[in-house]
Each structure stands twice: as C-alpha cells, then as structure tokens.
Amino acid sequence: MGQLYERAEIYDLIESEQRTASIRKDWEMFLGERPIKTFLDVSIGTGGMTLPLQELGMELFGSDLSEAMLARCREKALAKQKPFELQCSDFRDLSCWGDRQFDCVASTGNALGYVPHEDVLKTLEEMDAHVKPGGYLCFDSRNWEKIQREKQRFYLYNPFFHGETRVNLVQVWDHNPDGSLVFNLLYSFEQDNRIVQKEIFEEHYHPFPLSLVEKKLKALGYSPMEWQPLPCFSQERDFDKVDWYRVIAQKQ
Ligand SMILES: C[S@@+](CC[C@H](N)C(=O)[O-])C[C@H]1O[C@@H](n2cnc3c(N)ncnc32)[C@H](O)[C@@H]1O
User: Fold this and answer.
1) In 32-143, which residue ranges form alpha helices assigned H by DSSP?
2) What is the CATH number of the domain that holds 153?
C-alpha cells in the first residue's frame, strides 16, 4: 500500500481556490487580535493550510516528517516568491529548531493522531519548548470521539478536476479492536467515463480524546485554553457535533 505523503502531487489535488480562500478566512478569524507574527507549523506538509498565513503577514517556519511534502511546500512558496525555512523532522523531536521560540507553534492537518497517546504528550512538550512566553500552542484534529461514537466508516469528497481528468476520492475507515483506526484512501481518475488510474493509500491513526491534551496543556502552564470548530466561522458550538476542531492555548 502506498504512502500518500510520498505522493505530494496527489495529496495536493484537493487544493482549490475556494478551499484556500476558506482556509485564509479561518486563519484571519483565528488571528483576530492575537499578536502573532512568527508561526511554526510542525506538520506543515505541502503547506496547504499554512501558506495562506503568509498573505496575512505572518513569518512562517515549518517542519514535517516527509521530504516529498516539504519539497512541494518549498516549490509553492518559491512560486509565490515567499521562500521560508523548512526542516525535515519528526514532531516528537523538534531539536532541529534549536532554542528558537515563536509566537505560535502549531500542528496542522490532523497530524497528532498519527502517533500513540504517550507520543502526543511528548510532542506537546516539544512544541511547548518553542513557544515564547505569552505565545500560543495550537493544533487541529478530527473529532475522534465523535468518529468512534458513531463508528463512521465512509467519508466522501465531492469530485474535483485536474485538467480534463475527473478525480474521485473516497475514504473508508477501519475501526480496529484496539481502538486504532486505518483510513483507506481510494482515488480514481476518470477520462471519458473510464477509470484510467487508481491510487490507494493507507493511514494509521491513534484517536485521542480532547481531555488528554487539555490535561497536558494545563500541566505545562497553558491558560486560557479553548477549542473552536474548524473552520472557526462554522456555527456549530456543540463539541459532540463538530467533525473537526482546533485547540488554542496560551502560554503564561
Ligand atoms: C494530513 S497531512 C497535513 C499536511 C498540512 N498540514 C496540510 O494541512 O495540508 C499530515 C502531515 O503530517 C505529517 N506527519 C505525520 N507524522 C508526522 C510526525 N511524526 N512528525 C512530523 N510530521 C508528521 C505528514 O508527513 C503529513 O505531511
């Protein structure tokens, strides 16, 4: 089974002007009055969620486990004539950033769930080490509690076009007895009503409850701490009903 993050060009097929505009609007509301100028994303990938922050005046820094995702992020930033520093690194060890600290250290794109619970806690410690006093730690996540309660299995995307090719993406989620989840991503590429290419990827997740990170961030001295739906302009405020959320915590 292929690794999606080795195929950054396929990962990026979901990008569109509409999606980027929605991400930019979400960040704009997230920033609000917060005095954030420097922003490190420790799971930046190809930058789909993070690059729009440049347009909002942010100085970006990024790291990720996948060289292929970083290479594409680098290309996209260069194309906009806004290159910035990128490092290849597991977020469980952020020593690549030395003793540098940032106004906000984030993990975007539902990435914390890739690692077991004890490693989520370790990652929060690593991120914390790079947050300036008074700065922010934030991450976004699927609502694993809702997914596990509902035993949701199928997640369908609207078809999108890549040139003349129509791309369909379906996710099938396997709920394992040990509580872990496997996302099977099935891409089919259609031309003239025929499937001309298929790509299948697997992703393994360790769902974690919000309470796990709330407790850790409190112990690390973060307050206030809030969750908001992602995107934050969504009207839903009942945690049990949101599909995706973001946690923002301020370091004292
Ligand atoms: C769903 S992608 C999100 C990418 C990007 N943030 C975005 O929103 O487009 C998840 C990213 O997490 C990265 N990742 C997974 N495990 C990681 C780890 N242990 N340390 C750092 N990055 C990791 C993957 O390489 C991938 O780029």
Assistant:
1) 67-79, 117-128
2) 2.20.25
Q: What does the alpha-carbon distance between residue 233 and residue 139 come to, in Å, rounded to a whole number?
A: 17
Residue 110 Cβ < 6 Å to ligand 1? yes
Closest alpha carbon to 43 in 169, 121, 140, 130 = 140
Q: Whose CA is nearest to atom 17 of ligand 1?
A: 65
Specify the CATH number for the domain of residue 245.
3.40.50.150
- Tell me the pTM: 0.97
Instruction: Provide the 8-state DSSP code for 2.
Output: B
- Measured between alpha carbons, how far is 58 from 28 in angstroms, rounded to an integer? 11
Domain match, 164 and 221 both:
no
Ligand 1 atom closest to 110 (CA): 1
**How far is the C-alpha of 241 from the C-alpha of 235, rounded, in Å?**
11
Predicted local confidence at residue 203, as pLDDT: 96
Q: Render pLDDT for 138-189 as a digit per residue (tens, 0 to 9).
A: 999 999 999 999 999 999 999 999 999 999 999 999 999 999 999 999 999 9
Query: Would you state the structure tokens that stand for residue 184, as one six-digit string?
Result: 């099977």
Q: Is the CB of 69 under 6 A from ligand 1?
A: yes
Contact 190, 216 (CB under 8 A): no
Q: 58: closest CA among 37, 74, 32?
A: 37
Residues 21 and 57 in one domain: yes
pLDDT in tens, 72-118: 999 999 999 999 999 999 999 999 999 999 999 999 999 999 999 99
Sign of the four-CA dihedral 38, 33, 28, 123:
positive
How far is the centre of ligand 1, averaged over its atoms, from the C-alpha of 114 (Å)?
A: 9
CB 246 within 8 A of CB 232: yes
Structural domain containing residue 23? 4-143+208-251
